[in-house]
Amino acid sequence: MESLTQSQIRQRLKSLRSEHQKLDILIAQEMSSSSLDQIRVCRLKKHKLAIKDEITRLENMLLPDIIA
Questions:
Q1: pLDDT tens digits for 37-59?
Q2: For residues 48 and 27, is the Cβ–Cβ distance under 8 A?
Q3: Residue 63 CB neighbour total at 10 angstroms
Q4: Cβ–Cβ contacts within 10 Å for residue 26, how many?
Q5: What are the Cα distances from residue 46, in Å, to 11, 39, 52?
Q6: End-to-end C-alpha distance for the chain, whole angstroms
């Protein structure tokens, strides 16, 4: 895995959050469409989940390790 600075991580998080929000809107539009394409909706949701997982992974990189 490449080593990222905190600034690079924050920038990537900003980009991913924006993409996640756009997918949310796109999914809502597709769901309200009269010609609903279930396969497209499924793919969009899967992509949105992958982005969410990446956001979580990057957020965890910003948190310091806490020794309990």
A1: 999 999 999 999 999 999 999 99
A2: yes
A3: 7
A4: 15
A5: 23, 11, 10
A6: 26
